[in-house]
Automatic annotation (TrEMBL):
This is Serine/threonine protein kinase. Residues 40-98 form the FHA domain. Signal peptide: none annotated. PANTHER family: SERINE/THREONINE-PROTEIN KINASE. It comes from Gibberella moniliformis (strain M3125 / FGSC 7600). InterPro entries: FHA_dom, Kinase-like_dom_sf, Prot_kinase_dom, SMAD_FHA_dom_sf.
C-alpha cells in the first residue's frame, strides 16, 4: 500500500479503466488506473490478474481473459492497447470481436476519452478513399507525421483488423528532382511488398493515384525500440544482444533488396 502511494505521488496513470458491471444493472462502477510500465490483466484467477472477476456463474470470463497495456512512443505520447489472452468467449471492443483462443491476439488500439491527434484528409484524398472504401477505411487518427508523409490508423473492412496507412501527398514533392523522388517513393512501397521478414513490419497493400500514395501495413501493437527502452528504463546485456541481432538481420534483408545492379 505504501509503495502504491509513493508511486501515485510521483507519476500519473496513463489511463483509467472504467468498469461497469452490466449484471447489476450498471450500478457497480469502478475506476482502475493503468500504469505505463505495468500490464493490467483481467480474468477469473485472482493470483494471475490485476482485476479478478468473481461471481461469474456463467463462466463468460476465462481464468486469464484479456489484458490492457501502454506503449509509450514519447514522454507525452502513449497508446493504450487491449489484447485477448486465449479466452474461450473472446474479447470484444464496441461489439467487435478482437481476439479469442487458442492464440494470444495482437493488440487492439483503444481510443480513450482524450481526443487523439488528428489529421484531416483533403477533399481530394477523401474522394480517393471512396474508390477503395470497400476494402479499407482511413481514419483521421494520426499516429505520426513527418515532412513528406502522415501515418494514420486504418481498418480492413472485411476482417475488421486495425492497420497503418502511410499517406504521401505526391503533389507536395516539388523541385528539380521531384520525379526521381516520387519514383523512389513507389520503389520503397514495391520493396516493402516483396519483403517477408519477422523483424520488418509486414506489408498489406499499396494504392496510388496521380496525387497520392497509400501504403498499408500491419499495426505495430507492441511498439518500437524507443517505446521498449522507455518501458524498461535499462536494457540488460542479453536483451541488447538479441535486439542488435534482430536489427542487423532486418537491415541485411533491406540491403539485399535495395542494393540493385
Amino acid at each position: 500500500m505504501e509503495e502504491d502511494t509513493t508511486r501515485a505521488s510521483q507519476e500519473s496513470p496513463a489511463a483509467y479503466l472504467h468498469l461497469v458491471d452490466t449484471r447489476s444493472e450498471h450500478q457497480s462502477q469502478q475506476l482502475f488506473p493503468v500504469w505505463e510500465r505495468e500490464i493490467f490483466k483481467i480474468g477469473r484467477d485472482p493470483r494471475a490478474n490485476t482485476l479478478a472477476v468473481d461471481n461469474d456463474l456463467d463462466f463468460a470470463v476465462s481464468r486469464n481473459h484479456c489484458e490492457v497495456y501502454v506503449v509509450v512512443y514519447e514522454p507525452t505520447i502513449n497508446h493504450i492497447y487491449v489484447r485477448d489472452r486465449k479466452s474461450s468467449n473472446g474479447t470484444f471492443v464496441n461489439g467487435q470481436l478482437i481476439g479469442s483462443g487458442p492464440d494470444i491476439s495482437p493488440g487492439y488500439l483503444l481510443q480513450s476519452g482524450d481526443p487523439p491527434p488528428r489529421h484531416e484528409l483533403t477533399s481530394l484524398q477523401l474522394e480517393e478513399c471512396k474508390l477503395f472504401a470497400s476494402k479499407y477505411h482511413v481514419s483521421s487518427h494520426c499516429l505520426g507525421q513527418g515532412a513528406e508523409a502522415v501515418v494514420c490508423l486504418a481498418n480492413d473492412i472485411q476482417t475488421k483488423k486495425q492497420l497503418v496507412c502511410k499517406l504521401i501527398n505526391l503533389d507536395k514533392i516539388q523541385g528539380k528532382n521531384s520525379q526521381e523522388d516520387i519514383r523512389r517513393k513507389f520503389q520503397e512501397a514495391d520493396i516493402l511488398r516483396q519483403l517477408r521478414h519477422p523483424n520488418i513490419l509486414p506489408y498489406v497493400d499499396a494504392i496510388s493515384s496521380p496525387h497520392s500514395l497509400y501504403t498499408f501495413t500491419e499495426l505495430a501493437s507492441g511498439g518500437d525500440l524507443m517505446s521498449f527502452i522507455l518501458r524498461h528504463g535499462t536494457v540488460k546485456e542479453l536483451d541488447s544482444r538479441i535486439i542488435i541481432r534482430q536489427v542487423r538481420a532486418g537491415k541485411l534483408t533491406l540491403r539485399l533488396w535495395t542494393s540493385g545492379p
